[in-house]
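Submission sheet (multi-component)
Chains listed below:
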Amino acid sequence: MQIDVNGTLTPCRAGMTVAAALLEQGIYHLRNSPAAGTPRGAFCLMGACQECAILIDGRIRRACQTVVRDGMCVVLVGASAA
Amino acid sequence: MSTPASPCRDLIVIGAGPAGGNAALVASGAGLDVMLVDEGQQPGGQVWRAPAPGVTPVADADHERGAALRQRLQKAAIPMRVDAGVWSVTPSDEGFEVALAGPAGPELVQTRRLLIATGAQERVVPFAGWTLPGVFGLAAATVLLKSENFLPGRRILVAGQGPLLVAVAAKALKLGKAPVAVVDYNGSLDWLRSLPGFLQHLPSFRQGLAWQVQLLRAGVPFHRRSEITLAEPDDAGVLGSLTIQSVGGGDPQRLEADTLFVGNGLVPSDEILRLLGVRQRPDPFGGWQVEADECGRSSVPGLYVAGDCGGIRGALPSADQGERTGMAIAQDAGLQTGTASRRNPWLDRFADASCALMQVDDRRIFALSDDVILCRCENITAGVVRAAIADGAQDANQLKHFTRLGMGPCQGRMCGANAAALLRLSPGTRPGAERLTPRSPLRPVEIPQMAGSFDYADIPVPKPAPL
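Outcome: structure written.
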């Protein structure tokens, strides 16, 4: 199973969350703070802090609460997937 | 219309952790028509979180209790809404109306009685650089461990306070990622003071002791009475190093680390309860408790509370509370039930010992330097908050109006407890008004998630009045 992260196909396993899939690949920088422009990443991983709210299949979703789907399109705005 | 009206339930339970899950089982078993709602993919809550599909779980007590709860809920065939966020709860003619946004679209459910069992969220004492990617909550580590049996990073540091510290550090060690250091705000004396309480629940005590011994044997350095004062980025802009300092002062020490798990205890997730106007009282360990009887009856008729959202007690007392509250609800509805188990005083002493280690003195927040960010969403620093208080902001809501603190997507969940501490110690502020008023929508929700899909032709348009 794979998800598309900023155009790069990234391996993952069925049933895991997008946040877990990104962290397993060592991807920490998920977006930039809209207010300060500084890098941000997943923080609480239980749906409260909203730090991992990123574009998933065109909608803003919390990566820690969203389960991966094969071919899912994840966009890390202001962050490179490398 | 978009939001289908379902028949009125006898009981909606919000939160399917130890408290809510057990309450739903008991109430349903007594004959009530129960609906159980949870934001997670599966019941269990945070502490009894289920492993993700295909992941071999660590067979510990939490996993076994969670698996047993999930099995019982499945067998009882209680109607459930998982992956569902509650964004509004309002009093209604029947009792309460609960608005849900979930994968099946929006839903409005009526219920005669409502049980809130939404648990707790983690509190983190801010420090310079705590918004860097690579800094995670301590409880975030337990989420990854329970669901994926995995922790990210190569050089992990574990910091903060409370029993979770040792648990996370030991589990990192077991995964072959021995922490660079464990930075504990508490000293050996604090742990010693909590020892009699921990001895009240021997299985947990033995587990904690075993973890501690494993860490010491592996040579993991412990920094007691110390805290993180600074996180700095590497060239890529993510966490690269951490500065540790002893609480009593002394020379700071800089350590390379790419991953920090840091947490300073728990605060009740009590937004829905406060929205509905329950009476609360100060918790002896800081924060707030809901005023409720032994069986979870709150000051609002028909509204019940169980578990950590009513005051932090931990998983096992929460499970007991859930059972008692489920029984009380069934009895209040006129049904016969068995006799509830008595409140277990040993478990309470154990909880006291844990809570004592997780206390955060307001003065720690008050002492933060001006450049430390309090509100992560809006980047509001301690200095900006102090300036607003000096300008006349006297309570949390005024602070929000003055600065935007608590106005971002987390709705004050990350900054609320810390802003409250600053307000409490600032002269000229209004006592008892240091918390943000919870408002609907209780969580960020998109308009389509509220409205669902509908045909404009189906919207009833009243006939215009005759001219």
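Remark: Chain B is about 30% helix and 20% strand.
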